[in-house]
Fold this protein.
Amino acid sequence: MGGPKDDDGGHGGGCCGPVPPLRLPDAAARPSAPAVPAAARTQGIPDRFVRLPPGRARIGTDHPLLAIDGEAPLREQRVGGFAIDPFTVTNAWFGRFVAATGYVTEAERFGWSFVFYLLMPEHLGPTQGVVGATWWRNVPGADWRHPEGPGSSIAERENHPVVQVSLNDARAFCRWAGARLPSEAEWEHAARGGLSGDVRYPWGDREPDDLDFMPCNIWQGAFPERNTRADGYLGTAPVDAFAPNGYGLYNMCGNVWEWCDQPMRIRSNKKLLRQADEDVVKKGFYLTKGGSYLCHRSYCHRYRIAARTGNTPDSATGHIGFRVVYDLP
């Protein structure tokens, strides 16, 4: 397989944290995307969506593992009633959106995107890597239809989460579907599934391991050299894999990061803020929640409800997707 070869491209990065934004030096040189009409929503909210009434949502934690991300403190915020998809948006649903609108994603317009090196097709050969995170490769031709680059396909992954989609792409989908992306408070409220207290995961506080307790799609083994695939997956899993939480929502942690349409702000003291990586706190970053198939407690313990990171709205990778919500009348 194509592994780390050249380490002179990009900046920043991490297994689950921000990677270099897909931003052209001259934004005017990027072809514009087609306009996406707003949906009439004549069919209403899909029946599969879980309806959650207005209430008080718990956000954050009083036991942060990555305090510099702004995980603390545990607090409450009122949320209105909303309906949330049990699943992240699939390749099949995103494909219907593209077929109906002619939309071209940002990765397609840029002409490349980020792919994890163990997932790259063997024929690709040497690729450019990210300094400090060489497992991320700059792959020409990687996009939502070809998540790992030329030679890869979603033909047998219609029920997997769509990836290689930016926040702007997710917003465009929402305009077509008459939906929106969740806020952080809504996402955490839904992820807790009705569990009380300062709970760590959608299933409770038990920590996933590499042997006999694997309730979500994350990494097993030594990151980034070896994934034992003990949970059955190297990359994405079907959106209905693993057991749902108490609200019937699947993969709220693990599988893919999920965009929230909310700027990333760090709730932290000034000392921590000064120590933070400037890429994490700089203006223009938007939240992603839930962790991904690349997370492991030895490196990126962000597959927790309170965990959070962010990226620029035009960034896409092979481990970021989204799920949508509707406001309840």
Observations:
- DSSP finds six helices and 15 strands in the chain.
- The longest helix spans residues 91-101.
- The longest strand covers residues 133-140.
- The domain at 6-19+47-327 is CATH 3.90.1580.10 (paralog of FGE (formylglycine-generating enzyme)).
